[in-house]
Amino acid sequence: MKTFFRSPIVQIVLAFITAGYLKLCIATTRWRQENRVAAERVWDAGGPVIVCFWHSRISISPACWDLKRAQEPRALISLSADGEFIAKAVAWLGFPAIRGSSTK
Fold first, then answer.
1. 13 touches 6 (CB < 8 A)
2. Is 64 helix (H, G, I), strand (E, B) or coil?
3. Which of 32, 36, 56, 89 is the most buried (most CB within 10 A)?
4. Cα–Cα distance between 5 and 26 in angstroms, integer?
């Protein structure tokens, strides 16, 4: 079963379905932003902004700021097989991945 879910075509299909579901979640969630003024001051000055999310929050991170206004976003994602699926899903949301890991 593990081999089936890690096959490239299955990962692409699951990433597409997951991205669609996440777009629905993002569109239907009520958001509250705190201290956005600080990030906007940096953007207005042309500086970079680093936004960090823990595992369970990465999938909805695109909703936290206007992607057209911010610098081109990237997501740091593990080199693991599970990370491959996540990298594909967030790429469909407009977040190309930077792949890295603390283990070999």
1. no
2. helix
3. 89
4. 25
Q: Where are the alpha helices (DSSP H) in 1-104?
A: 2-5, 8-28, 36-44, 81-92
The predicted-structure confidence for 13-23, as pLDDT tens digits, reads as follows 988 998 898 88
pLDDT digits (tens, 9 = 90+) for 3-15: 887 888 988 898 8
User: Cα–Cα–Cα angle for 28, 34, 40, nearest 5°?
Assistant: 100
- CA nearest to 66, candidates 92, 36, 23: 36
Element (H, E) at 97: strand 97-99
Question: Encoding tokens for residue 45?
Answer: 């000055």
The CA-to-CA distance between both ends of the chain, in Å, stands at 24
Distance CA 72, CA 102 (A): 25
